[in-house]
Amino acid sequence: MSAPATSEVTRLLLRWTDGDKHALDDLLPLVYDELRRLARSYLSKERPGHTLQSTALVNEAYMRLVDQNVSWQSRAHFFGIAAQMMRRILVDHARARSAAKRGAGDFKVTLDEAMAISDARDVNVIALDSALNNLAKLDPQQSRIVELRFFAGLSIEETSQVLDVSPATVKRDWAMAKAWLAREMQG
Amino acid sequence: MDTELWQQVRKLFHDALELPEAERAAYLDQSCSDPTLRAEVESLLRFHDQGSDLMEDSPIKLLKDARSGQERDPWIGNFIGPYQVVAKVGEGGMGTVYRALRVEEQYLKQVAVKVIRPGISSSQHYLQRFRNERQIMASLDHPNIARLLDGGATSDGLPYFVMEFIEGQRIDDYCDQRKLSTAERLQLFRQVCGAVQYAHQRLVVHRDLKAGNILITENGVPKLLDFGIAKLLEPELFLQTTQVTGTLMKPMTPECASPEQFLGGTITTASDVYSLGALLYRLLTGHPPYRVEGRPLHELARAVSETEPLKPSQVIDRVEEETGDGGARVQLTPEYVSGLRDGDVEALRGRLSGDLDNILLKALRKEPERRYASVEQFSEDIGRHLDGMPVLARKDTIRYRTVKFVKRNRTGVAAGVLLLVVLLAGIATTSWQAHVARQQRTLAEQRFNDVRQLANSLVFDVDDAMADVPGTTAARRLLVDNAMRYLDSLAKEAKDDRSLQRELASGYLKLSDVQGSPYRANIGDTAGSMVNLRKAVAIREDLVREDPGNREDLFRLAVAYRRLGVMLVSTGELHPALDITQKGQTILEGLLQTEPRSFTLLDEMESIYETIGDIYGGNGLSANLGDTETALAYHRKALASAELRAQIAPGNVGALHGIGTYNIKVGDDLVKQGERAAALSSYNKALEIYKGLNAGGDSQRFQRQTSLLYTRIGDVHLMDGEPRSALADYIRAQEIAEKLAAADSQDALARSDATLGRGLLGKVYAELGQTEKGQAMLNNAIAALEDAVARDPQRTDAYRALGLFYMWRGQVREKTGAVEGAIADHQRNASLLERIYNADPKDVEARVTLAATRVKIGGLLAKKGNAGDAMQAYQNALPDLEPFTAEKPFNIEALYAAADAYAHIGELVQRQAESAPSSPHQLELWRGARSWYEKSSVTWRKVRNPGKMTPTGFRAGEPGKAEAGLAACDTALAGPGRGLAKNATP
User: Fold this and answer.
1) Is residue B782's pLDDT more than 60?
2) Does residue A37 belong to the interface with chain B, where contact is any CB pair within 8 Å?
3) Do B386 and B430 fall into the same domain?
């Protein structure tokens, strides 16, 4: 699998920045595939001594996919997308593993069933995803902060740049989101 | 919580966070009066303060941890094709087997995926073996054999295949855990035998039968796995008794391996008999026939090949220790093994001694020919034992008594048995031996049924298995021939037996196939094939006459009609072919009315539509009525039916093959209608289908289709004046055709394809200016075809091909200026076409091609300056062309040839006018020339999208010639400057 042409992703990104909603539909799978590919190569033996930080992965995807001369808005948009896609990759993976563990025969997988039999780690990811959806209904910004901080691995500074809010706000919202999610997932 | 409330919570939380813990309560007292609000903020602060490991790890680390639990196999979690790999379930020398999932909508389907080990995938030897296994699995469809579901290559190009995932227990564990009695174990074992016997009938020897390869499902169904070292028997070997040759040691499992496997001898079905014996020995006694553990392999080999195993009834007294599952030591004692079976030691001994001792020792004989002759026989003997009947297995050798018996009974059925025995040595040798002691009568009856069963198994199972394997044509003929002789003689004895009559009809059809099916590998005996087809039709008609309501018999009759129709087409008898095939059409359409979505009925229906379409307008190499439009309609009907079949059974190879074939035929018809772009798109659809099918296996039929398809695409490019593209297409076609012909030198069809391909290549090389090379290839192809025609004078399709080559060579010669040679070639073509046409005056294709050839000859004669003969040739041709130049239905070749002929006649008349300026007829001559040019121009206008070549391969005339001639005539008729006006005025 080869990475899509830089120009293609950049073009879509610019169109989306300019308000073209359809551009996003084309953009998401490209970013998803690239991140997935990178994640796999990070995890394989192809890269000895690699970092386990997702920020490195997202940054590499950015370097590979986007023309470096784009505006900061476009850059911010890219990281927003990448964070969402990292979240999806992780959740997809956890779901697949849960389903796989379920065993023989043809069967219908429900989230509950999947959670009942999976690794704690997989459960966490799936439950986090679900809790995060609830959080987004109350506070979309906090949900995005969680995506950027956790799934994309961005720092407080970077997150504040992407969302165009102060670092102090990011910090406090991040703290609150974590507390809220921890409570939500405990119950 | 609504968002407004949330925003209040958020503000309070943010503010409180900035304060030291101790001051937060005071702050909240002051800023928050709503107790609910306050409770929410405090709750969140509490969770914040106590901290959590939530989102502490990087997500990448989570992914990584998840993997490390799975031994870091690169496939686990990843996709092989559309299958997501879950866990490794086994590993062999060549490949690794994984449990994998395919997500279909909301459902998950569990499968086993075997993928070749990356390390050995570069070795052709292993790749071949891996593909071999896949091919073997594909040929086996039995309830007790793990089924092949799919196959392909990973994105890295590693081949894999997908089998049904069997969740079950090894047969030995299953038996022990349930403490099955000896009788229950024997019943289970017999089911395993059924599966092995089934594989043997398909010429597949498993070679690694052992407890670990036989799983019993929850429902108690045994499933045979792992054909990783299985082998497709050479048919020659199949016919011989076993012979030991010095080959390399093959992979094997010592406990169940036969002496010949240890010694590197030839592996046959008898080796599987031995392995099954070893397995049964273990199941019944708990002990292996030879102690394996702690013994060096060479010592074990010696024991296995030189010493007799202990009798099962004695081995149970032995005390042995061995390593069980999971490495625990298991003590095998008489009490232990009996406890798992029939209770106490003496009960088990009583059960084993006698019959079962003899049966097992017979299966475990060192000499393959002294074991049971087939797995079926082995299994039947166990059955007899269970029924309390006497068994075959006896201590002494029966060979001697057998020989005596055969000598005594060299008549009737017994002689038949003897012949079959010769044919099937090694498989069927001794099934009747034990009956020696019984009365003749019972024996004869049983023989009758055995022979019938064996002959059927040969005709249907074995031949089907071999049909798609290159190199087996001669063996197929031998097998089928012999089997048929049997059915023939048996039929005489049982004239009123309808089921036997049916078998006989099917047998005749099958034999006819091997002799000369135009569609499959055959041995080129058209006359013999026709005789057997007519026999089959006659029997089928009788059956329907006796019971007209029997749908199965009706269906079979329709099949036989269609088959006869196809054969009649290949010998050029078009109208009889059409009549008989339409009889089949009527039957089938009637049957489909009650079952419109029956896969089988649709399958046959489309073959009938296809055949009728071919009769109306085939591909030019077989006779047809030249009605392309009707042909197109029938071929489209066939295509629609195949598409319906593919919808009913998605992925079904037959349906896909149908879609491919009918797209080709629709494309052919479109080419003749001048719709070459549409034709190319049909061809490309077909090509996609065959690429998919070729990726799934190596059946020679699909490869042949791919080759033919490239040829057609090349033809279209040639018509479009793109000889370079055509060359590339022809080369692709030829590579495949030569490969198939080389694989089986007996296969007439593959040979003729390869020959035809050489001719085509010659033609296109000449077209590209490489005249010498082109001519040499054409000469080579012509010599081969002349040879083929001499060998099988019934095949008019070979005449046609030969005629085509003469024509092409003629055109090449014409290009190089060798006019005489060109005329000679066209005349050769003409005389072949005359023969075909005379045999069936309704063969429009032959008639038109013959006329077109005469037009070509006329052109060459004119070139030589022989205007009178040229004119004669044109005048001879036109009556055979003009009936087919109407607007509808038209014949494309007739249009090309007539348009060309008219322009040529116009030219001849024009020259006469020009050479006789003073003739009183000059005006008449110019008017005459003009009217011929006019006819040519009108005819050209009916040719949609004129090409450089006609579909048959004639170099097409120039439409511009008519227009130029018209202009010249008009100038002459109107122009005062050429002395015409002067003469025109009286």
Assistant:
1) yes
2) no
3) no
For A5, B289, B484, B511, the CA distances from B488, given in Å and listed in that order, are: 71, 46, 6, 12
Within B387-497, residue ranges assigned H as helices are 399-408, 412-423, 440-456, 463-467, 473-493
**Greatest CA separation found in chain B?**
135
Angstroms from B58 CA to nearest CA on chain A: 6
Residue B896 to residue B918: CA distance in whole angstroms: 35
If you average pLDDT over residues B288-313, what whole number do you get?
80
- Where does the pLDDT of residue A127 fall: very low under 50, low under 70, confident under 90, or very high at 90 and above? confident
Asked if B879 and B890 touch (Cβ cutoff 8 Å), the reply is no
- Three-state SS string over B38-88 comes to HHHHHHHHHHHHHCCCCCCCCHHHHHHHHHHCCCCCCCCCCEECCEEEEEE
- Write down the H helix ranges in B494-573: 498-516, 526-546, 551-570
CA angle B603, B606, B608 (to 5 degrees): 115
Say yes or no for a CB contact (<8 Å) between B58 and A54: yes
Same domain, B208 and B335: yes
Phi and psi based region of residue B622 (left: phi greater than 0; alpha: psi -120 to 50; beta: remaining): beta
Give ipTM to 2 decimals.
0.81
Query: How many percent of chain B have pLDDT more than 90?
Result: 26
Say if CB A79 and CB A62 are below 8 A apart: yes
User: Which tokens go with B558?
Assistant: 């329709």
Write out the two tokens for B474. 């001669």
Domain count, chain A: 1
Burial class (CB in 10 A: 0-12, 13-18, 19+), B49: exposed
Alpha-carbon gap, residue B95 to B225, rounded angstroms: 14
User: What's the structural domain count of chain B?
Assistant: 6
Q: Which DSSP category does B348 fall into?
A: H
Q: How many CA atoms lie within 13 A of B566 on its CB side?
A: 21
Binning pLDDT at 50, 70 and 90, where does residue B164 land?
Answer: confident
Token output for B479: 């097998």
Mutate to test the interface with A, among B18, B50, B55, B76 (most CBs of A within 10 A): B55
Find chain B residues with C-beta within 8 A of A176's C-beta.
10, 13-14, 17, 44, 48
**Which CATH number characterizes residue B523's domain?**
1.25.40
What does the angle CA B34 – CA A135 – CA A23 come to, to the nearest 5 degrees? Answer: 140
Burial of B66 (0-12, 13-18, 19+ CB in 10 A): buried
B849 near B894, Cβ under 8 Å?
no
Cross-chain residue pair B48–A125, CB shorter than 8 Å: no
- Position B668 pLDDT exceeds 80: yes
- C-alpha span between B602 and B613 (Å, rounded): 16
Residue with tokens 């031949």: B463
Question: What backbone torsions phi and psi does residue B973 show, to the nearest 5 degrees?
Answer: -70, -30
Candidate list B172, B176, B208, B715, residue with the active-site label: B208
Single-letter code of the amino acid located at B70: Q
Q: Is B715 a catalytic residue?
A: no
Please state, in angstroms and rounded to a whole number, the distance separating the CA atoms of residues B573 and B964: 43
Asked if residue B643 lies in contact with residue B663, where contact means CB atoms within 8 angstroms, the answer is no
Give B686 to chain A, closest Cα distance, Å: 28
Q: B445 and B378 in one domain?
A: no
Q: Domain range holding B307?
A: 168-394
How far, rounded to the nearest angstrom, does the alpha carbon of residue B614 sit from its chain's CA centroid? 22
φ, ψ for residue B99 (rounded to 5)?
Answer: -85, 135
Same domain for B312 and B207: yes
Q: Which of B146, B164, B182 is the last residue of a domain?
A: B164
- pLDDT category of residue B167 using cuts at 50, 70 and 90: confident
Residue B858's alpha-carbon distances to B17, B536, B851, B855, B900, in angstroms, are 105, 48, 10, 5, 10
